[in-house]
Predict the structure.
Amino acid sequence: MEWIESILIDHSALQAVIVLSIICAVGLSLGKIKVLGVSLGATLVFFVGILAGHLGLSLDADMLNYAENFGLILFVYALGLQVGPGFFSSFRKGGLTLNMLAMAVIMLGIVITVIAAFLTGIPITDMVGVMCGAVTNTPALGAAQQTLKQLGIDSSSLALGCAVAYPLGVVGVILALVVSRKIFYRNNDKLRPTEEHDETFIAAFKIQNPAIFGKSLKGIDILKGHHFIITRLWRGDNEVSIPTSETVLEEGDRILVVTNEKDVAALEVLFGEQESTDWNKRDIDWNKVDSHLVSQKILITKPELNGKRLGSLHLRNDYGVNTTRVYRGGISILASPQLRLQLGDRLIVVGEAKAVKEVSEMMGNTVKNLGEPNLVSVFIGLTIGLILGSIPIMIPGVSMPVKLGLAGGPIIVGILMGTFGPRLHMVTYVTRSANLMLRALGLSLYLACLGIDAGSDFFDIVIRPEGMAWIGIGFVITIVPVLIVGFIASRIMKMDYATVGGMLCGSMANPMALNYANDVVGNDAPAVAYTTVYPLSMFVRVIIVQVLLICMC
């Protein structure tokens, strides 16, 4: 039995890998179990690690520190890559309002944390750990740990505070959503948004407006600010063609238009009568719509197309095909000439079979090419992120410089790489499965190490009065900001439940609560608001905990 003891107890690289692997495997397996429709996922790794630490398992200090930091770096960088493409667009009209509400949730939590520290005498280091657990934000916890290490202060209580407050942090947001729905939406009014998010819509029109008879498509500039693409034109005896900018419209022509649903009424005024046929059904066989045209979904897999504008490819003039839509991350985007293409985009192309085949070959359309990981850009991004995280930043009124650290630097570079990488023709594409793998691996390692580190003292803290105080204060930090901002958004700003619920879940980085909101609404509408506020909320929480600790320690 000595060999079992050597691989589980005696400190070594082998022992560290085996112990962490067992903790991650058990935690992830338990995390799949649903209780009342909610599963905790990777969070259970944290608590399995706590149990292992409580039972006496430990790792070499250097190995523990390395695995914890490496896991955190992987997690936050992959997270930045994921949210990067939508980060800056989240500040547009509508998104700006949601982000300001999310900032209100964060600021209220900070205020409650500071007030609780003054009233109870609990050290601010402990309170920051409690706050990180209450808002279920592990990157913020990592940033706080790095800050305390820079200040030369023991950070062990941070993980303990987070562990104690975490369970009610998960449950508290769900409870707040339940209360909000019962009180603020008594009659089930406005559960869903009145307008769906801005995806493409297909409509057919008959040309009946004398003002555009005899005009070419490029001459129709009445609807500036409204975007649409005419993909097919029927004339005479159902003769179908791919219209170009030089195509002249005649009375009685029938056209198929891809646009946004909110612009349909304006287009009806411009063109004439809208046909009653529903062109947005999923089961339409577009290859049977007309006799000699082919509609095909083409995957962009050639790196040289990454970051190029769609209009610069001249697909209509050079190949005689029309690009109607672009699918990116599960969302259908209008194929405007200004749209910058990315590896992994799927283009809906309409034209003659030979021309469509040529376009397919030009764009690659080879799934195998996307399966090859672009590890060079990943390691370059990690390097730049760590360098950025080590740069001291002076903030007016703060006694010492702030560093973005191992959490802040990589997440910022990840966001920038995800946003601007394609524009600089950098291949930053990572398949969704690869991104999820990096995030899950990094988060699991990080949580397992945190749990082991906190496990030896966890149960002793919980049963003591200060442990119960941490739990109570953490619950207040969780539920009070959510209820206050939820009331303002629903009763004062008259926002629908789906949008409010998604915004609150995103501001608290709580995907478990998001699942509940999606189930209540019956669709994925809350996820739109969640992804709108999540990037900025994550970034602000990572930075603000560092400023708070530097100012108050």
Notes: The first helix runs from residue 2 to 8. The CA atoms of residues 10 and 70 lie 22 Å apart. Residues 200-369 form a domain with the Alpha-Beta Plaits fold (CATH 3.30.70.1450). The longest strand covers residues 200-207.
